[in-house]
Structures are given as structure tokens and as C-alpha cells.
Design goal:
Blueprint lengths: L5 H23 L4 H16 L2 H4 L2 H16 L7 H30 L4 H33 L1 H5 L1 H27 L4 H78 L3 H29 L5 H16 L4 E5 L10 H19 L7 E7 L4 E9 L24 H10 L4 E7 L3 E9 L2
Parallel strand pairs: 1-2
Antiparallel strand pairs: 2-3, 3-5, 4-5
Helix pairs in contact: 1-2, 1-5, 1-6, 4-5, 5-6, 5-8, 5-9, 8-9, 9-10, 9-11, 11-12, 12-13
């Protein structure tokens, strides 16, 4: 084990911890001066005060501290941030050990210049910190693209985190063994070599695993796209049939109007034309309102689903409002699950107002930013409902219904970290909100 001055040891421990914290915060967010001081520099300086006592335990404490801060900020443990933290911690291990190994060998060859070598190793460690931050900045966007599946699939993300935890535990076990048993530089070289080889094998295995998962995800997306295409084609068929019906009605209306004109019954002809114009104006107003909002949804399957539900509401003469303020090309998460939940919520609203004297339904799809969206459906009530029992399997406020829809919604949502359901109710209305957020 190398013997260095207390100040040099303190600076070494501080830089080693900063080598984890600074690139981590650079990767997951903006490295502002406030973040650099409060979340990087202060923890590193404080933990380094106990460097000799804590040794490599300080890295474990840093990770636990950062995970605790994330939990306070409502970031789950199985998040992308945890993946980034563990990955950087593992990468830092061979960097620090290689620098320490080279410095130890130089100390043995040039004992007179030991202190100069120690200060030089600190500069090299600082240089490694700068290079790592630059590398994170350069490849940050590529890393986001490579890990986009981590935001959508919690099960895949948890597997990655589990693997990284095991790998990190092995790294720390090696470091603690080397510290407490004061291994020789030769043995340290063997450990570093074995670890680098292990990291290389791990990278190959992880690449194969991720590529296999991506292939599976692509197949799944293709199935989803096929189902959306089928829904879209059915929607086109409905529109085609509606156009044929319109042509048929148009011909019949012209024949009827011709009859009034032939009979020279001008007042009847005028009343008939006024009735036609009123009917067309009413239909056009409703259609144009929905078309404007639906055109902003660039997801064919979801757009077709909502068009179908809106047509059913219109056919049932239910006053309906539907609003989409911004263009939406993609929603975070599995589209099959999202479409299922939205379908169940809209069907539930339709069934709830079916027997009401003054029914009303309001829907909206809201985009807060590129990572957060909300779908709301609100319907009128004639009596208060027990919100606490709505999601119980078998419970229903409608006679003759099995009460499976909302229970299914809760089951889907419970399995997805990026989805949440909120319910608000009064004596006159109830609103369901599906919150969708990338994690």
C-alpha cells in the first residue's frame, strides 16, 4: 500500500469521489454551480475527512446518499438515474486503480521523487475527471437514445440495475480486500487486469442482451403497428360506408325537393331546404370540432379509437367536448396498454351517462412537455359514487355489469412505473385522469 501525506490522501479521496459525482450529475441533468457545490463538492469534501477510516466504503455511502436524494425528489430506485450512478461508479474503479498502480511503481523506482510523483498522480486524476466529464457531454445524447427502452420497460430496467449492483459489489469487494490486506503492486496489477477482462466480457454480454431485447421490442412494436393499422382500416371502411350513405341521402333529398318544385309548392320547398341546412349545419359543427382536435394526434391507433368513441357519443346525442391543444406524435410507454386504458375509461363514461336525462362528457389529451402527458375523461353523475370502491373487481355502479373494466385499468397501471391514475369526484361529476410520464 502506498504511503502518502495526509493532505495528498485527502485530495486523492476527494477527487476520487468527484470522479463519480460530477459525471453522474452531468449525465442526468444540468451541472449548474449550485449542483456542483452542494451535490458534488460538499459531500466529497466531508466524506474525504474520514477517508482513512472509510476507505472504499465512502463510494458505497455516496451511492446511498444519492439514491436517498433521488427518493426525496420522487425519483424511484429502479430509475435511469440509478443505472447511470452505478455505471459511472464501476467505470471509475479501474481508472483510479491504474493511476494508483503506476504511481506505486514509480515510487519504487524513484523513491527520492515520491512526493512529486504523488502530486503528479493527483493532477492525472483531475485530468481523468475532466476527460470523463467531456466524454459524458459528448456522448450524452447517444446514451439517451441507447437507453430509451429503460424509460419504457421497468422490468428490463430492473434487470440491468440488478446486474450492475452485483458487478459493483464485486468491485467494492476487490477494493476493500486490497485496502485491508495491503496487496502488493504486482497483485494489484493482476486484479486490475482480471477486472478489465471481466468488464470486456460484460460489455459483450450486455450488448448481446440489449440487442436481443431491442429485437423483441421491435417485434412487439410491429404487432402494435399492425393492430393500429387494422383499426385504421376499419375506420376507413366506416367512413366509406358513411360516404355512401351520404350520397344515397343526397339523391333522395334532391328527388324530394324536385317533387315540391314540380308541384309548385314553394313554401314546402323552402321549409324542406331550411330543415336540410339546419341538419347539415349541426352535423358539420360537431364533426369540425372533433376533426380539429383529432388531427393533432399523430398516433393512428389512438386517433381511430377516439374517433370511434366520439362517433358513439354523437350517435347517442350525448353533449361531448374533446380538446387537444398541441400536436402529439408519441406517448411515453407501451401504446397497447395506453390504448386499453383509454378505451376502458371512455367506455365507462359512455355507460355511466347512458340513462341520464342530461348527460355530459368532456375529454382532453394534454401535453405538458416531451416527457409528461395526461388524458382526462369527465362525465356527469346523478348520484355520488364511492371512489374507494371503483377499482375493486366485481364492483359496479351500473346494474347488470360485472365491474371488471376499472379493475383491469388498475391492474395495467400497477405493472407500469410510468403510468398513474387519478380520480376526482363530486355529486355532479367524476373525472378520471391517466398520467403518462417517461421515467
Amino acid at each position: 500500500m502506498r504511503q502518502v501525506l495526509p493532505l495528498q490522501a485527502y485530495l486523492w479521496d476527494t477527487l476520487a469521489l468527484l470522479l463519480v459525482l460530477v459525471p453522474y450529475h452531468k449525465m442526468v441533468g444540468a451541472l449548474t454551480p449550485k449542483v456542483l457545490i452542494l451535490r458534488c463538492l460538499v459531500p466529497a469534501l466531508l466524506l474525504s475527512l474520514f477517508g482513512y477510516t472509510l476507505s472504499d466504503w465512502s463510494f458505497i455511502l455516496v451511492i446511498l446518499l444519492q439514491v436517498t436524494i433521488n427518493r426525496i425528489g420522487k425519483i424511484p430506485i429502479d430509475s435511469r438515474q440509478t443505472v447511470a450512478l452505478l455505471t459511472i461508479s464501476i467505470v471509475v474503479f479501474p481508472i483510479g486503480n491504474i493511476i494508483s498502480y503506476v504511481a506505486a511503481n514509480l515510487d519504487q523506482r524513484f523513491p527520492a521523487g515520491r512526493h512529486l510523483i504523488d502530486w503528479a498522480s493527483l493532477l492525472v486524476l483531475f485530468g481523468a475527471l475532466v476527460l470523463l466529464v467531456v466524454a459524458v457531454q459528448r456522448f450524452k445524447q447517444h446514451a439517451k437514445k441507447a437507453t430509451r427502452y429503460l424509460s419504457e420497460d421497468g422490468k428490463f430496467r430492473r434487470r440491468i440495475i440488478g446486474f450492475l449492483v452485483v458487478l459493483f459489489a464485486m468491485v467494492e469487494a476487490i477494493s476493500l480486500f486490497a485496502f485491508y490486506y495491503q496487496v502488493t503492486p504486482a497483485f494489484q496489477l493482476i486484479v486490475i487486469t482480471c477486472f478489465v477482462i471481466f468488464i470486456g466480457i460484460t460489455v459483450v454480454v450486455m450488448r448481446y442482451f440489449i440487442l436481443s431485447y431491442q429485437t423483441m421490442q421491435i417485434s412487439k412494436n410491429q404487432v402494435t403497428a399492425y393492430k393500429q393499422q387494422q383499426t385504421y382500416l376499419l375506420d376507413l371502411e366506416k367512413n366509406y360506408q358513411a360516404l355512401r350513405s351520404f350520397r344515397h341521402d343526397y339523391h333522395n333529398n334532391l328527388v324530394a325537393l324536385q317533387g315540391y318544385i314540380t308541384a309548385n309548392d314553394q313554401p314546402a320547398a323552402q321549409r324542406y331546404i331550411a330543415s336540410l341546412l339546419q341538419d347539415v349545419a349541426a352535423k358539420t359543427a360537431v364533426d369540425s370540432q372533433f376533426v380539429t382536435s383529432l388531427a393533432k394526434i399523430k398516433i393512428p391507433g389512438l386517433r381511430a379509437l377516439l374517433l370511434d368513441k366520439l362517433n358513439k357519443m354523437t350517435a347517442a346525442n350525448i353533449p361531448t367536448a374533446f380538446e387537444v391543444a398541441q400536436s402529439i406524435a408519441k406517448l411515453p410507454g407501451d401504446m397497447i396498454d395506453i390504448v386499453r386504458i383509454i378505451g376502458i375509461l371512455t367506455d365507462n363514461a359512455l355507460e355511466a351517462v347512458a340513462d341520464q336525462a342530461q348527460p355530459n362528457i368532456q375529454m382532453a389529451l394534454i401535453k405538458y412537455n416531451e416527457w409528461a402527458y395526461e388524458f382526462t375523461v369527465e362525465n356527469s353523475l346523478t348520484e355520488a359514487v364511492d371512489v374507494n370502491r371503483l377499482f375493486q373487481r366485481g364492483y359496479s355502479t351500473k346494474a347488470g355489469h360485472k365491474g371488471l373494466g376499472l379493475a383491469t385499468v388498475q391492474q395495467i397501471q400497477a405493472a407500469k412505473k410510468n403510468l398513474a391514475i387519478e380520480v376526482r369526484a363530486t355529486d355532479q361529476m367524476i373525472r378520471f385522469s391517466l398520467l403518462m410520464q417517461a421515467v
